[in-house]
Batch of 2 targets.
Target 1
Amino acid sequence: MDIYDDLIFSVKDKFNTKINKLCVGVRWTAVYSNRVGISMTYNNNDHKSGIEDAGNLEGKTVIELLNYLKTFDTLKISLGLATLNSLIKIPEKYETINIFDYLINKGKDKKIVFIGHFEDIKKLEKIAKEIIIIERKPRENDYLDTFQEYLIPEGDIIAITGSTFINKSIKRILELAKGKYVIVFGPTTPLSEVLFDYGVDMIGGVVSKNDLKLFNIISQGGSINNLKEVIDFVTIKRRDL
């Protein structure tokens, strides 16, 4: 078993649930089963022709799309994650903590390693001892993701974008981050306590406030700024920093 198998197994009681509706939008992917689950649309398969069974996915059982998580096709994995997120029961106890506000309060004099480039990182520049940003497509002052083998073990706090579930870098990142304070966050991130078993300390995901409106925004090419009106950013924690 690995992290993907464990996430799939965690919703085993819902395997026969039907896909009511889905949309692969320009920026986000949405799947409506029990509720709307979303994931970043990540299509890094230029050699692929798309989803082979496109046009026939609605009405399928969720297990068929959950199995996309076991592939190496990032577009399919996006659909698999959105499906997973549509099935995970919303935790009874969660907090509405902004991850960056949390790091401002708790990250003083800490070396923070970000996997993924976030605009709000600049808020931490006067707080943290050092900030390192690791990116697959690095901007100025970012580090290429191949350097993560050396940089992650040096950090005190490792903050990871949920899109690492799609490109399947999450497994190695969590191995490198063992013993650190680990945060995984973003709309793609599964709000599942399964992640705690893999060393994650804080999980930040989203909860829909209006499933229909959320689905419509995604199907019409909406950005994260459009989504903010219909989602809440929530966190669950294994332990505090």
Target 2
Amino acid sequence: MLLRLAFCALSLGTLPLAVAEDRQFATRTRPLIQEYCQHCHNADNRESGVRVDTLESMIAESEVKHWQQVRDQIDQQRMPPEDEPQPTDAERRFIVQWFDRALHQAKIRPQEYNGSIRRLTVAQYRNSLKELLHVDEDVASIL
């Protein structure tokens, strides 16, 4: 994980920031999530189908929607439930701020492009050429 993080950070020119975020996740964020969330949301006990034991410092773009919902539950004080130990206001604020940064990074991180592109129909191609070249002739037929 750290190697992948370092490679991504090097390619973006943000290695010191990425390493600091990873260190902060390991020392502050993960322990808070383990303390307040993991006993109900783990591999053996998936309350509402949610697992927090798989959370890493770099959120994948494909998981943004899921972790945004988790962040909202924490921010709106719906999690942890009232009958469970509660984080302090400062801890809750810290976790929400960490999620905000991690989700933002996941959204702006360059994604791999699969290379597929939709082809134009003949009519779309003809109309595109007419619009680009500002001609009324059917240029597509001679190409």
